[in-house]
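Review box. Two proteins, two foldings.
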Amino acid sequence: MEKGFLKLEKGKRVTVEALVTQLSERVDRNGNSYIDLTLTRGEEGLSGKIWNSSLWAGRFPATYKLIMEKKGVVVSADGIVDEFNGIVQLRIGRMDPLEDADYRDYLPRSPYSRESMVKEFDEFLLHIKDDDIARLLRAVFSEDIRECFFDAPAAKTYHHNYISGLLEHSLFIARLGKKTLEVYPEGLINPDILIGGILVHDLGKIWEYENDMGSIEITDEGKLKGHIIMGSEYLGQIAEMEAIPSEKVLPLQHIILSHHGAREFGAAVLPMTMEAYLVHLLDNVDAKMKRYSDLVKEFPESRWTARQRMFNDVEIFLDQ
């Protein structure tokens, strides 16, 4: 069995053991059906294609029925390594379920220690000096919410789309925020609003996404309201229960509502405070840096990537 997905050689026949995620059956421009899927193993993901899926289903009816109807199937996939737009993918010929495998061992998750990240997150909370904001954040991150937040993905695709991705993303932005506070004169930026806003800016994502055995989907509530509205609403509800003064709550809600920066990107309002504008900028920096680091792994032998929607639909130069 091959060990590293990104080291697979084009044209070589390989067998990989992985979790089937993000599976869908589609029709190409010639009217032929095919299965598009992702084979996942921890941090690694490999695009897989089963061409002429109707014929394949006739050859392997039990496997076809299983992967189409059940999530969390771990398989041994045999096929030929192919490439599309510089990205390695597997042209699958045969796929057999591994009945004794535990899907949890294959789930994509943050490469960083969850325990260490939780400890660092709590240290940021402890350094909030304003009593009202500190009390609000402690109430927001109650035991149930903490566990959901610490396990949640930060996105369906693009960046940090794995277990504890939201925690990782929030911590990286908090680190950037802390460094920013060291650069500019004291008093220009409110540190409690900035760091507190960073920690809650994506809070609504714990209700926007559900991670079903490695397949991240947007919930009905996520589609109808979105994480920005849900996060602001929840913060307001907790603030009312804890009798937090509105002048302490409003700046944090503004950060949640404006952190996408522009209405065409989902912001409910535009950033109108220094802290809100900084959260927007730092959020964008971390998302793009994460995507860039992933591209370096996805295109290990290339000087240029394929066009990237996240980077304004241009190719990215990787040759350093």
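Next protein.
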Amino acid sequence: MIQKGNIKYLAQKHTAEFIIVRRHLHQNPELSFKEHNTCAYIKAQLQDIGITDIVSVAETGLLATIYGIREGESVLLRADIDALPIEEINDVSYVSKKKGVMHACGHDVHTASLLLCAKILFELKDDLQGKVKLLFQPGEEVMPGGASLVINEKAYQDLGNLPHFAQHVRPDIPVGKVGFCSGKFMASMDELFLTVKGRGGHAAMPENAIDPVLITSHIIVAAQQLVSRMASPKTPSVLSFGKVIANGAINILPDEVHIEGTFRTLDEAWRKTALEKLEKLVTSMAEAMGGTCKLKINHGYPHLVNDFRLTEDSKFHAISYLGEGNVIEMNQWMAAEDFAYYSQRNPACFFLLGVGNTEKGIESGLHTPTFNIDESALEIGGGLMAWMAINALNT
């Protein structure tokens, strides 16, 4: 029987080694679906641990297996491995070496943490019952999302239905703490691209034009009805437009306006209905004002749902590992995450790893050029993931 003391001892023993791994990954980030060197580096790390069952998935991802001494159930632990197109401005020795590319979402942490977890579990394999699948997934940051490719791979489909675990760093949670939310946790995400066409002209003679800027203004305001009047107040929804390009001038009305935005929710049926209503609304409003509007929707990730029993059990085990004061109940989060694809098919637990430290000035948000972590979080992330996996196998 594996005791948490064994896990904690090994996590503490090996953390320094995997801080070096994290720093290497941070210095050498690669964008989504281009993680060739990252994949090779992870494979070498797994082989150094002693893991030999390693297969390629989604071209730049890996699925590895740790076998326990006895037959049993299986669990899957996932880390994403891609970086973001952001120029890092941190003053640290391990700053990104690649101009315009940075691990600004902590995927280097997720990867190093899972490798530490793998090291712990491999050293305890003679006391382990069952199998632990380690998924290093590419392309989380861009659609269609690496998870959507992985779920269609034979190596993944052959796994059947099994518990899935993953963690995500959060700088607004102090290092030493973790957060859980049972049930619906993170939102679906769809990208919206609208082209509003009118008839350009002189700004001083609007009667001779069909002003697409005015039409666009009405569309942006009216579209908020989707959230304020068409959605149930019990169903979280967000509709935001972050980009509007008219390309006119102070005295020129353009022929067309381009708008980009996103729609997010925690209900798949409402998601489908809302997008249908949005298309009817923007089309009819533009036509009523003499113009046209074409809406293109890039359908993104579904909403992420944490299996209630698995997550509550995992929270209980996290409390036993870290202490009750270090385990936080989280609210729903309207960010999107492609781990949702796995959660729609399998019992899943996606939890948050605190990496912030205000005393050290480590508090920049995700997706910022100054994002950083308190690296002591690796010991917690790797150890806790191992402890949760073992308890899931025993359950």
